[in-house]
Amino acid sequence: MSNMYGLRNSEETVVSSKTKKQEASTLPIHGSSSRQPLPAGIPSRQRASDSKPAGLKVDEIRTYGSGAQRSHIDERWSLLPMDSLMAAARVMARGAERHGENNWRLGIPIEDVLDHAMNHIAKYLLGDRSEEHLAHALCNLCMAVHFDSQHHEGE
Questions:
Q1: Furthest-apart CA pair in the chain: how many Å?
Q2: What does each C-alpha distance from 154 to 102, 109, 111, 150 come to in angstroms?
Q3: Which has the higher per-residue pLDDT, 6 or 64?
Q4: CA nearest 57: which of 16, 11, 92, 4?
Q5: Staple partner for 43: which of 12, 17, 58, 82, CB 3.0–4.6 Å?
Q6: 108: closest CA among 120, 121, 97, 95?
């Protein structure tokens, strides 16, 4: 049975073209090791520990239970908590209004963005809820990762 997007129900599984390994459609519940079924119509993927079966190279093709095919990628965007990303996007939008669009891309010393991240974490730990401190810390850590990767890019 397919939904309005042409996807099959939650029984659909990913089949690796190399291993033919199938796995149940489940997502972890926050704070526990038990897993809940995926909503109907969302095809499953292999768990992170199996996300790249032995012998599966980046340019190889995955074959899904439906017969659809797609190339393998290492990034697992579906594992990121979207509410956290939305909070970070709100912080970045307010920052763009206050400091200018992409102002941070002009370059800020990594020590400064790390100090700001730690400042927001400390305020959160002390009970300050006057702003989204964890989202601010997340944005600063994202900037730090960016600056660090730019610094090491030519090595």
A1: 54
A2: 23, 18, 20, 8
A3: 64
A4: 16
A5: 12
A6: 95
